[in-house]
Specification:
about 475 residues, alpha/beta, single chain, globular, binds glutamine, 11 strands, Amidase signature (AS) enzymes, 11-stranded mixed β-sheet
Length: about 475
């Protein structure tokens, strides 16, 4: 039962092969049995899940239908869930029960999805390995000595290990696509503004975007359908109609123009990954796509720009965690300054503290022009590169990551080494474009992802290409041993 995709579950529920309650019980038992190896959940919500499953079964018995009605999912632990701990992977919010549901949570609940729990993540979504979580590192089900990627590592490990079919995640600089690549999943970061950020605890507000993590493009289409849409509570949400993402999955790829940036294949890319990317290109050519070499000349500036903008916004966003209004408060403060200092010093881990300091420095009076303003200018250049490229091609293809999942602890002493691994993903966030990662093969038993980028609001095109590719390849069907 745990091997089913969302699409298969929807069919099974519609055909009354099983009930949502039965399925929910099977998956909850599986999580209890297997998750101790992975640490992919911060909280399990058994009672809520069984209540939602019974309600979904009752709605189906009353003649209602819908792809998400009775479908088990989990939320990354930065989506606010009313009355349920919403920790953001931090000691700071370990005691925080959100007073309301994030829009994404409310929309999926209304569609009948069943919440099994809240998944582990890098603290405040800062990281690429899920090792900065206050709740401990998450293990990669493909090799328990390796990281699952981050910051949505809990959602990725849980879905990859077949603990559940799909989960929500967020992507500020790659945190949906990179863990998807590291765990053999399909993950989609939508266009900035496509999915509401209301109730999604902010890391870097101009980059953050929620999206689906699942095994197939077909399932990402189903989950995205439930998440996307205008929200008047989010002033950056865009009032654009949401297309039927499942309806365009079957479109032909005949004549599709795929751009492959020459900068993607420079030194730094594992040659074995480069080979797998070439194979995926050949596969898409067989389906009728035409390949064109393109250039993204400002790509080399993206990492330094991102690692100024993201920490700057983080330092501002995280100033609200002051020991007064939310979360952790130190014992017996001497005065107000002592309360702020010790509450923040105790509540935030080292990576979060590092970024707050970098961000506050970059925004400070003497350095604003030199760092923040300059980074914003680079951001525009990165966007312009993409706009020029999309005049010539329909989609851009390349690796999701330069290397496969590294060993736990391997990059802990060198944060910049970890930042460099984001080279292929952060440009989409800087430009606000949609991006998808899908399975493309294995290197030393570890999964490799291929990334597709599309123009604004072309999520349907990304899902269509990925679905056609998945109808003709079987990488996405591989299951990690022991799960
Ligand atoms: N690895 C990037 C960072 O640490 C991206 C994280 C994310 O997308 N949330 O900032």
């Amino acid at each position: 039962m745990h091997q089913m995709t969302l699409a298969e579950i929807a069919r099974g529920l519609a055909d009354k092969k099983f009930s949502s309650e039965e399925l929910t019980k099977v998956l909850l038992a599986r999580i209890t049995q297997l998750d101790p190896q992975l640490n992919s959940f911060i909280s399990l919500t058994e009672e809520l899940a069984l209540e939602q499953a019974k309600a979904a079964d009752a709605r189906r018995a009353n003649g209602e239908s819908g792809a998400l009605l009775g479908a088990p999912i989990a939320h990354k632990d930065l989506f606010c869930t009313q009355g349920i701990r919403t920790s953001c992977g931090s000691k700071m919010l370990d005691n925080f029960k959100a007073p309301y549901d994030a829009t994404v949570v409310a929309k999926l609940a209304a569609a009948g999805a069943v919440t099994l729990g809240k998944t582990n993540m890098d603290e405040f979504a800062m990281g690429s390995a899920n090792e900065s979580s206050w709740y401990g590192a998450v293990k990669n089900p493909w090799n328990l000595e390796h990281v699952p990627g981050g910051s949505s590592g809990g959602s990725a490990a849980a879905v990859a290990a077949r603990l559940l079919p799909a989960a929500t995640a967020t992507d500020t600089g790659g945190s949906i696509r990179q863990p998807a690549a590291f765990t053999n999943l399909t993950g989609l970061k939508p266009t900035y503004g496509r999915v509401s950020r209301w109730g999604m605890i902010a890391y870097a507000s101009s980059l953050d975007q929620g999206g689906p993590l699942a095994r197939t493009a077909e399932d990402c289409a189903i989950l995205l359908q439930g998440m996307a849409g205008f929200d008047q509570n989010d002033s950056t949400s865009i009032d654009e109609p949401v297309p039927d993402y499942s309806a365009s999955l079957g479109d032909s790829l005949q004549g599709l123009r795929i751009g492959v940036p020459k900068e993607y294949f420079s030194a730094g890319l594992d040659t074995r990954i480069a080979e797998l990317i070439q194979n995926s290109i050949k596969e898409l050519q067989k389906l009728g796509a035409v390949i064109k070499e393109i250039s993204l000349p400002n790509m080399q500036h993206a990492i330094p720009a991102y690692y100024v903008i993201a920490p700057a916004e983080a330092s501002s966003n995280l100033s609200r965690f002051d020991g007064v209004r939310f979360g952790h408060r130190c014992e017996q403060p001497k005065d107000l300054i002592d309360l702020y200092k010790r509450s923040r010093g105790e509540g935030f881990g080292p990576e979060v503290q590092r970024r707050i300091m970098v961000g506050a420095y970059a925004l400070s009076a003497g350095y604003y022009d030199a760092y923040y303003l300059k980074a914003q200018k680079i951001r525009r250049l990165v966007k312009n590169d993409f706009m020029a490229a999309f005049n010539e091609v329909d989609i851009i293809l390349g690796p999701t990551t330069p290397n496969p999942a590294w060993k736990l602890g391997a990059k802990n002493s060198d944060p910049v080494a970890a930042y460099l691994e984001d080279v292929y993903t952060i440009t989409a966030n800087l430009a606000g474009l949609p991006g998808l990662s899908m399975p493309a093969g294995f290197v030393d038993g570890l999964p490799v992802g291929v990334q597709l980028l599309a123009p604004y609001f072309q999520e349907g095109r990304l899902l269509n290409v990925a679905h056609q590719y998945q109808l003709n390849t079987d990488w996405h069907t591989r299951t990690p041993t022991g799960f």
